[in-house]
Specification:
The protein has 460 residues and is α/β, with parallel strands linked by helices. It has two domains: 115 residues, Arc Repressor Mutant, subunit A (Orthogonal Bundle); 302 residues, tm_1862 like domain (pyruvate-formate lyase- activating enzyme, Alpha-Beta Horseshoe). The protein contains 18 helices and 19 strands. Helix 3 crosses helix 11 and helix 5 runs parallel beside helix 7. The two termini are 19 Å apart. The mean pLDDT is 93.
């Protein structure tokens, strides 16, 4: 394989979508209403939409006690834990409205609690939430039930409570172990605390432990990140998510507290990514794709190896590619050929539910072209290949005629060793897998027609 050089990383460091969906969420429109979403749920219930694949559930918990300056998530900063009681009541109302249209007892093989900080909720409140979900859905054995954990809000005892509630995967937000970087982003947490929690989680039998890291943060240097990388390798989590920090203070108000002068240079940021790739692959991790690494024995790496990898709003998953039910403020769902998103403010979310309405405020009904391109992009993002015949049989198109312009646009990537194109399909090379977003972008009709790409994070 061609070496992944800093020059190569610089060449492909351009803005682009993460493709947790296609079309991407910035294409959602307010013309898609709660009534449209209700119809999609009813079609799934009636069998007009395939419903034999288990559901995925996503629950958004927006609360955090403390503001992290880098954060671009939809969150509410508060120390008033009583607000969670009211919020759970509204989530319960939303579950009732969704299940009334979807049907009770639908199988679920994946659950993810995100935020915000889901561990803002007390053990009792998390228990109440899980009871609400279990009353209305059937959790299948062998599923992936995960929760994002702020290490500052838990101890080994709380991890035991999470295991008792049925969670079998944890995602710990670390970002960086360096004390100076932690101060610069207002997220101070001792390294020893994280090591203690990971040891406790392993002893409790959690099947997979993920660590979130960010490169490109203020006061971060190649030397300081190298120390963090060494500590993460020593920690040896089952999965690692390595994200590039996107400094967009005009869009995300918390980032205005970050001093631009303290951000690493573009050259240093590329050097950090290069060092991280070398460190994790050198330590035996599989590069699953798009920021994600996993130990060879982890379910994510196994799914990648066996061609069973899927991608949704929660990122890569080894579970079957099914519909996603989003619950909570700002949550995004996918049912059949539709995407939907709930109200982004707590007040608007509550107003809809107080009136007995689903809190969906925007979304998208996919057309035929969207569906074909989604299949192509997800095949590239997950399997690293597209077989022309499979697309032609599923969607009744002549691939090479319908996508002649895209195949032509792939030629520079072919010449750079990123992909190969044959008479039967497109294959992403081992080198190209590190730049797969750039390959997928070629088939994004909306992106190719849009000159304003700077609203996206950079692809590396």
């Amino acid at each position: 394989m061609t070496p992944i050089t800093p020059e190569l990383l610089r060449r492909f460091d351009v803005p682009g979508p993460r493709y947790t969906s296609y079309p991407t969420a910035d294409r959602f429109v307010e013309a898609f209403t709660a009534d449209d979403y209700a119809q999609a749920l009813a079609q799934r219930k009636d069998g007009a939409v395939a419903s034999n694949v288990p559901l995925s559930l996503y629950v958004h918990i927006p609360f955090c006690e403390s503001l992290c300056y880098y954060c671009a998530c939809n969150k509410i900063i508060t120390k008033r834990h009583g607000r969670a009681t009211s919020y759970l009541r509204y989530v319960s109302l939303e579950v009732d409205l969704q299940v009334a249209r979807l049907g009770v007892g639908r199988a679920v093989s994946q659950l993810h609690l995100g935020g915000g900080s889901p561990t803002f909720l007390s053990d009792e409140e998390l228990g109440e939430l899980m009871a609400i979900l279990r009353r209305n859905f059937e959790f299948t054995p062998g599923g992936e039930y995960s929760i994002e954990v702020d290490p500052r809000t838990v101890d080994p005892g709380r991890l035991g409570a999470l295991a008792d509630l049925g969670f079998n995967r944890l995602s710990l937000g670390v970002q960086d172990f360096d004390p100076e970087v932690q101060k610069a982003v207002h997220r101070v947490q001792p390294t020893e605390q994280v090591f203690t929690l990971v040891d406790a989680a392993r002893a409790l039998g959690f099947e997979s432990i993920n660590i979130d890291l960010i490169y490109g943060l203020p006061r971060q240097t190649p030397e300081s990140l190298a120390r963090t990388l060494a500590q993460v390798v020593q920690l040896r989590p089952d999965r690692i998510a390595l994200y590039a920090y996107a400094h967009l203070p005009e869009r995300f108000k918390p980032q205005r507290r970050i001093l631009s002068a303290e951000l690493p240079t573009a050259a240093n940021k590329v050097a950090m990514l290069s060092a991280a790739l070398a460190a994790f692959i050198g330590a035996g991790y599989v590069y699953v794709g798009m920021d994600h690494f996993a130990l060879p024995t982890d379910a994510l790496a196994v799914a990648k190896r066996q061609g069973r990898l899927h991608r949704s709003f929660q990122g890569y998953s080894p579970q079957l590619d099914g519909d996603v039910i989003g619950l909570g403020v700002s949550a995004i769902g996918r049912v059949g050929a539709t995407y939907s998103q709930n109200a982004k403010t707590l007040e608007e979310y509550a107003d809809h539910l107080d009136q007995g309405r689903l809190p969906v405020v925007r979304g998208l009904a996919l057309n035929r072209d969207d569906l074909v391109r989604r299949a192509i992009i997800m095949a590239l993002m997950c399997q690293g290949e597209v077989q022309f015949e499979s697309i032609e049989l599923a969607y009744l198109v002549d691939f090479q005629r319908s996508f002649a312009a895209e195949l032509s646009a792939l030629q520079p990537l072919v010449e750079q060793g990123m992909v190969t194109v044959s008479a039967t399909g497109i294959q992403v090379t081992a080198l190209g897998w590190f730049f797969v977003r750039a390959v997928a972008m070629v088939f994004d009709r909306y992106l190719q027609a849009d000159r304003n790409r700077n609203r996206f994070s950079r692809i590396l």
